[in-house]
Amino acid sequence: MFFPREVAELPQLGVLCGLRRALNQPLVSREAGGVAAARASIAVHRSPRGGRQISVCVHVEGEPHARLYVCDTLAHSEGELERCLKAALYFGERFGFVFDEDELPPGGEAAISQGTSVWLTLLESSAPRAAVFAQGPSAVLTKFRRG
Question: What is the spatial distance between Cα 30 and Cα 138, in angstroms, rounded to a whole number?
Fold first, then answer.
């Protein structure tokens, strides 16, 4: 299960070791009204607590803040990592995103640096880096809101 997190918690996720960007930009409804295109990425981090942490970032055009969602389970084995990645893919697909394969080649500081740059660009959007992300998974994304 994925829960919203604040930007202050980002360093606690650990070093980026995997990144999957959405291939599309589906239109999603916004609480403020109207629809807008959205971008998303799934990131895998080496957790400082051991294991790997999966997070999903969603940025809706015209919104000042991106949304960060973090899986409530740390993956300590390849099997757990696979289950968490499937959950992240399903979470994103519910909003209409289609994700590519992992973009980061194994090892290499350059790949990690480039992936981290892409990830931070999505997170920061047009807001200052120190801005706090808005709370609540339904605060912006309402495409699949149940009546």
Answer: 9
Length of the chain: 147
Characterise 140 by phi-psi region: left (phi > 0), alpha (psi -120 to 50), beta (else). Answer: alpha
CA angle at 124 for the pair 27 and 13, rounded to the nearest 5°? 105
Residues contacting residue 135 through CB under 8 Å, at least 6 positions apart: 4, 6
Higher pLDDT, 52 or 130: 52
| pLDDT tens-digit map of 56-97 | 988 888 887 788 898 988 999 999 999 999 999 999 999 899
Q: Reduced to 3 DSSP states, what percent helix, strand and coil does the chain have, rounded to the nearest 5? A: 25, 30, 45
The set of residues, in sequence order, having a beta carbon less than 8 Å from that of 113 and lying 6+ positions away, is none
CB atoms within 10 A of CB 112: 17
Task: Take residue 100 and report the two structure tokens written for it.
Answer: 């590519």
Whose structure tokens read 């650990």? 14
The pLDDT of residue 112 is 72
Residues near 101 by beta carbon (within 8 Å), at least 6 away in sequence: 20
